[in-house]
Design brief:
9 helices; single chain; globular; 370 residues; alpha/beta; AB_hydrolase_3; three-stranded antiparallel sheet
Length: 370
């Protein structure tokens, strides 16, 4: 297993697997290498990959219908990701955060069991599932969210309206409604509404990043007709799992998604709009502010949105925004798009460990003066 790992911009040593030609007792010597060199990623095995020519997959310009087919999974009584549930966590499932009785407007609250009678409030991790904006559901993410709750946080796992019936504006309104529910209700579960971290995988990560940006950019919030219910200073961090915070990659030749994904997310399919101009309001990377909270990015060379993640990391660093990264090379076969959901992989367990450390670092308990 090879990965490049940085913690708050401090490069960590990268573990090396033994080279096939070496003896069993001899491993390749450990070397330290910078994670990024002027847009070129230096891997643990010494191979450099030019971001401009790197291709995450052989698939190009996938139409919306084909992506939906790729993302859809057969319904099962218990999703495979949720086998062997975590019993150190309490589950409050399918809460209607809008009040319309619709499944797409439900959220779960996962709370670690605590024995102390007067427990200090915990940080809150709000999570949005992925699925290419067209599919997906919170339910398969229950085990993932429980794993994070067990690390000492209140986790909110939310559904939202999806394309092609709905557009990005609807998703932003739903995400904003989730945050409003959290601000009003999470204290009753032992959560601290002033220590919130947003996160998501794939399209859900995109929504989380755009909601974070909207808290800092009134123009962006106004564009989507939302009034952020959580002040920017209470958004302590952002987690991105195989997300797409840079929409410019959709205009690259050979990218996995077609431009119809941009049109699909716009009102009236973007009729009469210049797509590149419209995409600015869809691309969190365009709205980074020096006050933007710390970010934890996990991706791999097998991720469909690998290039978008590299671009986002570079933009964050250029603006001196605190960013922690966990990036696996192509040799890590378990790290396909949104692998983080499957807790059976050691790579996923490393994500959980690092995510817990990230939340504790960016949303620490307030020190009370005595």
């Amino acid at each position: 297993m090879s990965y490049t790992s940085t913690a708050f911009d401090i490069v960590r040593p990268t573990p090396f697997a033994a080279h096939p030609s070496t003896s069993a007792g001899t491993a390749r010597a450990d070397r330290r290498a910078p994670a990024w060199l002027h847009g070129i990623r230096l891997h643990a095995d010494g191979v450099t990959v030019d971001r401009s020519t790197h291709r995450e997959t052989g698939i190009r310009r996938l139409p919306v219908w084909a992506w939906r087919a790729l993302m859809l999974r057969p319904a099962t009584p218990v999703h495979k990701f949720n086998l062997h549930p975590i019993d150190s966590v309490e589950y409050d499932l399918d809460i209607d955060y809008i009040g319309d009785g619709q499944k797409i407007h439900r959220l779960d609250v996962l709370v670690p069991k605590r024995t102390d009678a007067v427990a200090a409030p915990l940080p809150v991790y709000v999570y949005f599932h992925g699925g290419g904006w067209t599919s997906g559901d919170k339910d398969p993410l229950t085990k993932y969210c429980a794993s994070q709750a067990a690390e000492g946080m209140i986790v909110i796992n939310a559904n939202y309206r999806m394309a092609t019936r709905f557009q990005l504006g609807h998703m932003m309104q739903d995400g904003n409604a989730v945050l409003d529910w959290v601000a009003r209700n999470v204290a009753a579960y032992g959560g601290d509404p002033t220590r919130i971290v947003l996160g998501g995988d794939s399209a859900g990560g995109h929504i989380a990043a755009l909601l974070t940006a909207a808290a800092y950019a009134p123009e962006l919030a106004e564009h989507y007709g939302i009034r952020p219910p959580v002040t920017a200073r209470h958004l302590r961090g952002l987690v991105q799992h195989c997300s797409i915070a840079d929409f410019s990659v959709l205009f690259d030749r050979g990218f996995v998604l077609s431009l119809n994904f941009v049109r699909m997310l716009l009102p009236e399919r973007g009729r009469g709009l210049h797509l590149r101009t419209a995409a600015r309001f869809m691309s969190p990377i365009e709205w980074l502010d020096r006050g933007f909270p710390p970010v934890f990015v996990t991706t791999s060379e097998r991720d469909y949105f690998y290039r978008a993640n590299l671009n986002f990391i570079e933009a964050l660093r250029a603006r001196k925004i605190w960013v922690d990264t966990l990036i696996y090379g192509r040799r890590s076969v378990n790290t396909k798009h949104t692998w983080q959901q499957d807790d059976s992989h050691p790579e996923s367990q490393e994500v959980y460990r690092r995510l817990g450390a990230f939340v504790r670092a960016v949303a620490p308990r307030a020190v009370v003066a005595v």
